[in-house]
Amino acid sequence: MKTTRLQPFHTFTIMTVFLLGTSIIFGTPRLVEDTWIVDLITLIPSCALFMLYTHLLVAGNSNDLYSLLYKIWGRLLGQILVLGYTVYFLYIASRNIRDMIELVKTTLLADTPEELLILLFTLVIAYASAGGLSAIGRVAIPISGMVIFFFLLLAVLLGFSGSLDTERILPLLSKGISPVINATWKSTIWFPYGEIIVFLVFVNGLGNPRRFRVLGLAAMICSCFVLTFSSLLQICTLGKENMKFSVFALLDAARQINIADFITRMDALVAFIIFFSVLLKCSIFLYAGTKGAAFVFKRSFKKFTLPCAFLIGGYSILVTNNYGEHVEEGLKHVIFWLHIPMQLVIPVATLLLVWIRNLKGEE
Amino acid sequence: MLRKGLLLFMAVILCLLQSGCWDWVEVNQSSMLTGMAIEPGKNGMLKLTMEVLNPAEAQRVQSSSGGPPTLLYTMEGKSISEASSRMNEMVERKIIYSHIHMVVVDESIARKGLNQIIDVLQRSRFVREDVLILIAKDTPASDVLKIMYPSGQYSSWKLRMQIIHFYRSWGGTPKSTLYNYTDAILSEGREPVLAAISVEGEVNNSENSKDTTSSIPRAIVKCAGSAVFKEDKLIGFISVPDTRLLNMIRDKITGTSFAVPVDKKQGVATIRMDPIHTTMDVTLESGRPQVKLSIAGEGHVSSIDTDLPLDTAAGYRQLEQMESNFLNEQVKSTISRVQREFGVDIFGFGEYMNRHHYSEYKLVKQDWNGHFKAAEIEVSSRIVISRSDLKTRRLNKPDVGQ
């Protein structure tokens, strides 16, 4: 395997933008009123989850997930698991594209057929991921700059247009702390933080596991603060009750921007944020997916890039019939049937096996 | 070479695709919708009157051919959405909804409830959150849009400017945008208010652009205070002075003038307040809400009819005292009038309590409006008058011998 390692800064930005990605637009799932507390609290379990992942690599003495699975579970089971992860990553990528398409279709290009949008977009992500990790790393720098810049611009403009009312945060925890904790383990750990498992596939390119652990934790803390700030911004602009009804909370907040009847309709900023972050997220998932296919079928990953990209694109249309189904699937079924097994059960089982094998090895 | 040629070909194709001609609209084939009036139509349908800009005449500067700046079209439909998407039955241009200024709602529709019309406004991506929602009082909603003005401005623009400036200078109209309404509907412990407008004069004589040549407008739209709602249903109106005090109690006022009576006769001192702030505290004492309002403001004297010694500190103190007492009385009477006549909390006392004393509010949440009716109000104001423009005392000839 070619080891073109990324600079630490590149690794950090990739992971930060990856975590902010779509969740900055859709916000924390609004299961409870105090979403920003959910954002803050989630940091602790998700950091623990991340420590589990890196420990898995260290204990298994391996530098990427696929070869570890192959080594631990044996030839047949290992290949099945690797293929399972491949499908899982491609599936998440197609859901992300669908997220973006939903926003674009409702706000910007209502009359453009979505097939065309998806075709153009998949060509771009195929090109990005065919360039490999170093290309994704390089593209992550301007993307992170733009995402953070547009987001801060939104915050500043909202502040100047006088839409922020800090009173709206109150009352705090009106229904007690337990719904907040519930929301944490039911959704926020798995999305966006749990999705960081995709990086285990190419730790090799990101530096050694120890450095990967430090950078990953830094990226998680950083994006946790940005997401909390984003939730606070949405609450202060829209109010808790209003947020529950909005499809894209940050977009609805951006619609409130009005500075002297001159700077208005900043919807485009939100669209830019989602374009860029979905571009990065999808190319990472696509890269991880093609790596998995390459691992199983022993071919160059570039051979799989274009077919997989079209697969993602096509599947993003087929994945749901309407927005309601999309949200329900994302909040319920995907979490229980995909996220928890793939992000928790299989890694924990693998870790147990690693321990058993290590013990046996010592005897 | 072939590879490069292929790349170039692809780039050209992509450029063509990127031009985004999918939803093109030519400027000369489109027209902006600026205002909308909603009235009850026949058989329970909604009658929609749309004010569409006449591009050649709107915003005319010097010369004009005398045509109207806007055209009105009327359409009936089961919902606003249905009627507005059928507008092209009679209009030749594609209508652009993004620049709508206001929606005027007829009183009878508002009494039945705004829920039947509000969703399309909240949902549509074209309608901005700061579109004004106004209630036409004692007049058909479409009349508001029918009046033409000599200045050449179209009705909804004139009315929007009027409302913005009236709010800024005197605070006599509530904040009445779509967003304010949504916010109030969703908030716990506060009922919505919207601006009310009414038409004065003869509408029939001012629909024609020839009628605008007179310097005395035959008909004019004026702000008529606020419409008070209970949930989404209109239950009554409060006057312009009460609306100003409502704005003041909610701490949503930028500046205003008070005419404070300063002696037993007709003498008043007009004091321009800028800025003025109100803080509230609402607590529950033995099941009865206690509202404490404290008003703090700074102002200057803009006119005075009596010989109050405005060149001494004592004179200022006296005037400050008079204004404080006056304000306390006015605020109390406004609140008690609302308590008595409507019995709905439009001031946001419940909202404050929900936010700051949640455990107490939980006890009265079920019937907050009932508790509001019985609330005890306590007002204190601290007014500072800092200057008196260009003169000290009122100019008069000093009495002989003094």
TrEMBL record, chain A:
Topology with respect to the bilayer = Multi-pass membrane protein
- A Pfam family that this protein carries is Spore_permease
Q: Which residues cross the membrane?
A: 12-31, 37-60, 72-93, 116-136, 143-164, 189-207, 214-235, 268-288, 304-323, 335-356
Which UniProt keywords are given for this protein, alphabetically ordered? Answer: Germination, Membrane, Transmembrane, Transmembrane helix, Transport
Compartments where found = Membrane
Entry coiled-coil feature ranges: none
Instruction: Check the record and name the PANTHER family matching this protein.
Output: SPORE GERMINATION PROTEIN A2
Name the NCBIfam families for this protein. 2A0309
The entry's family comment says:
Belongs to the amino acid-polyamine-organocation (APC) superfamily. Spore germination protein (SGP) (TC 2.A.3.9) family.
Name of protein: Uncharacterized protein
Q: Which organism is it from?
A: Paenibacillus auburnensis
Q: What is the lineage of its organism?
A: Bacteria, Bacillati, Bacillota, Bacilli, Bacillales
From TrEMBL, chain B:
Read off the InterPro entries from this record.
GerAC_N, Spore_GerAC-like, Spore_GerAC-like_C, Spore_GerAC_C_sf
Keyword Ribosomal protein attached = no
Per the record's keyword annotation, is Membrane included, yes or no? yes
Compartments annotated for it: namely: Membrane
Q: Where is the Spore germination protein N-terminal domain?
A: 25-198
Q: Where are the transmembrane segments?
A: none
Query: Which stretches make up the Spore germination GerAC-like C-terminal domain?
Result: 225-388
Alphabetized, the UniProt keywords read:
Germination, Lipoprotein, Membrane, Palmitate, Signal
In what way does this protein cross or attach to the membrane?
Lipid-anchor
Return the NCBIfam families for the record.
spore_ger_x_C
The family annotation for this protein states:
Belongs to the GerABKC lipoprotein family.
Q: What is this protein called?
A: Spore germination protein B3
Q: Which gene encodes it?
A: gerBC_4
